[in-house]
Amino acid sequence: GAVVSQHPSWVICKSGTSVKIECRSLDFQATTMFWYRQFPKQSLMLMATSNEGSKATYEQGVEKDKFLINHASLTLSTLTVTSAHPEDSSFYICSAGSGNTIYFGEGSWLTVV
Amino acid sequence: AQSVTQPDIHITVSEGASLELRCNYSYGATPYLFWYVQSPGQGLQLLLKYFSGDTLVQGIKGFEAEFKRSQSSFNLRKPSVHWSDAAEYFCAVAPIPLSNFGNEKLTFGTGTRLTIIP
Question: How many angstroms separate the Cα of A103 from the Cα of each of A17, A55, A84, B33?
Fold first, then answer.
């Protein structure tokens, strides 16, 4: 079946540095992918819609200059957290649709120290 | 704006007992409805979905959900829970019509954490 994979699963970075998270659709093409953020014991909040070949669409309140999204191919979207701060520490999940189902990646834990 | 409410933050049931997790939605029309499960530190796995037709939907792992239009509800049920069912459960909606399914963002409920007592 369709699979969405994220990498890395875990990442620790220092404050002020940038970190990139990849989201891949392994056996299907996805013109659109979604990036969600989840704080501990909370629900998923949509951050942005990643569109292949065009600019991402950000939800209200999400800083587009801080959370850079690139969807350069039909199977890969990347989320770069720039100048990371401890408050950016969170669980980031991507999703993509295939057929009539939306699939989620395994998620990426980001810890900023 | 559409919204999803999961009234129960945390539910504890004994292994072998039946389970019902509540989900109510607010939307101008009947949206597409989903239930996902998330184990600690993991991504989300789709349990089942409702688009149209039979209002009782069967999913994986022995779960089912019933869509009730009059109550704007889509409650998840399982007749006998197993210890491995302990997880976080999320109800989600997507708007209709879906011009190109997969390219629609989901709105999630706040989740219900399920604890299983041996």
Answer: 30, 22, 27, 14
Backbone angles phi, psi at A36, to 5 degrees: -120, 160
- Dist. CA B20–CA B24, nearest whole Å: 13
What's the CA gap between B94 and B13, in Å, rounded? Answer: 30
Which residue of chain B comes nearest to A105, CA vs CA? B43
The C-alpha atoms of residue A92 and residue A38 are separated, in whole angstroms, by 6
Hey, of A11, A29, A44, which one would you mutate to test binding to chain B, going by the most B CBs within 10 A of its CB? Answer: A44
* Length of chain A measured in residues: 113
Q: How far apart are CA A89 and CA A108, in angstroms?
A: 10
Name the DSSP letter for residue A75: T
- The full length of chain B comes to 118
Name the 3-class secondary structure at B110.
coil
Q: Nearest CB to A93: which of B34, B44, B51?
A: B44
pLDDT attached to residue A113 = 96
Q: Which residue has the higher pLDDT, B94 or A82?
A: A82
For residue B51 the two structure tokens come to: 């688009």
A22: which chain B residues are within 8 Å (Cβ-Cβ)?
A: none
Rounded CA gap, B108 and B86, in Å?
19
Among B residues 21-40, those touching chain A with beta carbons less than 8 Å apart: 34, 36
Peptide bond into A8 cis (omega under 30): yes
d(CA A53, CA A39): 29
- pLDDT tens column, A3-20: 899 999 999 999 999 999
